[in-house]
Amino acid sequence: MNWIQRLALFGLMSTVSRAWAQAPSNPAPQPGLPAPADLPAGTGLPPVTGVPHMTGQAVDASTGFVLVSAVILLLLIVGIGVKLYDRKQKRDQEAAALQARISDALMSDPMLSRLPITATVRLPLWNGKPVMVEVTGTAPRAGLRQAAVDLALREALRTGKTCRIVDRVSVDPAMLRHAA
């Protein structure tokens, strides 16, 4: 259960408990009907005759307030959920754009374009945290590995945000023999 669902459940439960506390424990006797204490034992309620037909039951102010509060609370929760979903979608689009820019830079470099090196970008939901760029793949020499990581770092820093590079590029000298 995430925090939005917990907040909704808490708000709903507190609204219900307030409404429950305001409900009368013993309803007032209606005119024309005997109170349950006035009836003989074992007879139950008498048949209802001569009672005026009620067209609708009046809702008191506290019940209306609770209902309006519940509707406002639900609308607020839905609005917050939509806002968070929209923010997540925007961050995912920004991450895809940055990942494409880093991949284009890796492909345009003549020394790195033939290497199986990829970058994966993860943007946090909140702005205060750094962008995480994970560079993975294999390079034949340590110098090419460092060049790929530096290129990814330069492209990530062009966005103006702080970033963190996770270097998962391994050096495999056997790649030189396979390329020849």
| Strand line-up in the sheet with most strands | 1-2-3
CATH topology of the domain at 93-179: GMP Synthetase, Chain A, domain 3
CATH architecture group name of the domain at 93-179: 2-Layer Sandwich
Helix content: 40-55%
Strand content: 5-15%
Regions with little confidence, pLDDT below 50 for 5+ residues: none
Mean pLDDT: 79
Question: Which structural class do you get from the secondary structure elements?
Answer: alpha+beta
How many β strands by DSSP?
A: 3
Q: Spell the H/E element sequence.
A: HHEEHEH
| End-to-end C-alpha gap | 56 Å
Largest sheet: 3 strands, mixed
The first-level CATH class name of the domain at 93-179: Alpha Beta
**Backbone shape:** rod-shaped
How large, in whole angstroms, is the Cα Rg? 34 Å
Number of helices: 4
What does this structure look like?
The chain is of the alpha+beta class and 180 residues long. It has a domain of 87 residues: GMP Synthetase, Chain A, domain 3 (2-Layer Sandwich). The chain contains four helices and three strands. It has a three-stranded mixed β-sheet. A hairpin with an 8-residue loop joins β1 and β2. α1 packs antiparallel against α2. The longest helix is centred in the middle third of the chain and has 48 residues. The mean pLDDT is 79.
